[in-house]
Amino acid sequence: MAFETSVGGGSTPAVDARATHRSVSAEPKLHQRAPETQAFNQLVNVPIGLSATVRLESVTALNQVLADTMVLRDLYKKHHWQTSGATFYQLHLLYDKHFNEQAELVDAIAERIQTLGGIAIAMAADVAETTLLPRPPRGREEVPVQLSRLLEAHEMHLQRVREAAKRAAAIGDDGTNDLLVSEVLRTNETQVWFLSEHLVAGPLAQAR
Fold it and tell me: 73 with 152: CB under 8 angstroms?
């Protein structure tokens, strides 16, 4: 056996680098599967001062808000790609701005769900099964129809957000209430204002 001299003058066995790294390999371990660490409808215990009953109710409501937010976000991207006509440039930019704002809300809502110990809905197929917003046609629609479709989706969404916010306040989940009112509700209301102004039939070059 090989030995090395220690600082204190004694002898210690030499370390075989090959022996200590036998489990390390540059070869990727593919096709791995394992049981889920947490089921979708299961809560983990998080010490945030809210009961499991309260957290479960908020997680359920937030997942509905999340699914609808993801659909609304994607509706903006659809119209961003498909808008046309004299207002193309303005609406192309506005739709994308609203898309990005909805994407930020998606992250905020999902993170709140995880904070409560739940699992945030994520995949498109699951979102499609969960959302309550109507599905648009695949083809291109006229600009007034795009705007109307977005406004109707916002109104449906806002009604449910208000209900969820009131319920969160009633059960003592102030964090969820704050998120829904300060971020989700106000962002959607502002977007409704911007969209609505595009449907006002005002004169372009000469006053009446």
Answer: no
Structure tokens at 55: 């957290």
Hey, what are 10's tokens? Answer: 């004694």
What six digits make up the tokens of 50? 């809210």
What gap in Å lies between CA 104 and CA 183, rounded to an integer? 10
Identify the DSSP state of 206. S
85/99 Cα distance (integer angstroms): 20
In the chain (208 residues long), the average pLDDT of successive 10-residue segments reads: 48 56 82 93 94 97 98 98 94 97 98 97 96 96 96 98 98 98 98 96 80
**Dihedral angle computed from the Cα positions of residues 44, 47, 51 and 55, in that order, rounded to the nearest 10 degrees:** -50
* Domains delineated in the chain: 52-197 (1.20.1260.10)
Q: Please give the pLDDT value at position 99.
A: 98
8 Å CB contact between 64 and 157: no
Cβ-contact 127, 67 below 8 angstroms: yes
